[in-house]
Amino acid sequence: MVTTPTQNRPRPKLPNGVRIYALSDIHGCAHLLEQMFAVIDADMANSRPYRAIEVFLGDYIDRGPNSRHTLDLLIDRSRRRNTVFLKGNHEAYFTSVLDDPSRAADWFRFGGIQTLMSYGISVAPDLGKDELFDLVRELTSAMPPQHIAFLRQLRPTFTCGDFFFVHAGVRPGIPLPDQREQDLLWIRDEFLQSKKRFGKYVVHGHTPVRQAELLENRANIDTGAYATGNLTLLSIQGSSMLAI
């Protein structure tokens, strides 16, 4: 459990009555997602916030064991709760594979094989170009249409009060409305090493850390769920942040 550090400057704040629950980098760990849903549900039943928003920061698929069930859970959640789904670099790359199957070989190297397996598709080594195209067609047929629609409709950012939610981060020195999607989904060092304020307090994932980092200018809540078994939930209300 991590709470926000003491800050000399005014703390970022959500509008009155709003509570946000944020999760990032689920990476096919459906069982951990179900556990976090139970935590959120219990907290809401106990405290009954005026308006709760569940914000998911991308990388729902790849690497972990059950991308398919993860998408089922998220889509079902969207029908019953106030949810916001952001795009991660893994979703961006996956949809590019659907449009250009020749990119599938690179996708396999950073977790795509696990996604294929979750849809009941096996992958032989050293596939040729024609075989890659056939494999992607097989995947497209195996995926429920709502899964593909979900992955293609993700948004790059979400803003609420003094908080800016994004998958990877932002490029320092560039106003938030002018950020490039490439940076929003992929940036690391320039963002992570910056001590600057970014116009709003940035909540992000993308770069795994041992435990959630709640810093002066940003919060990183990617705790490497697929490798560590630790999926972090960040709860925000008013100017209070709590990472579980």
Automatic annotation (TrEMBL):
Organism: Bradyrhizobium zhengyangense
Domain of life: Bacteria
Listed Gene3D superfamilies: 3.60.21.10
Residue ranges annotated for the Calcineurin-like phosphoesterase domain, each copy included: 19-210
Gene Ontology CC terms, in alphabetical order: cytoplasm
Gene Ontology biological-process entries: RNA decapping
One Gene Ontology molecular-function label: bis(5'-nucleosyl)-tetraphosphatase (symmetrical) activity
Protein name as catalogued: Serine/threonine protein phosphatase
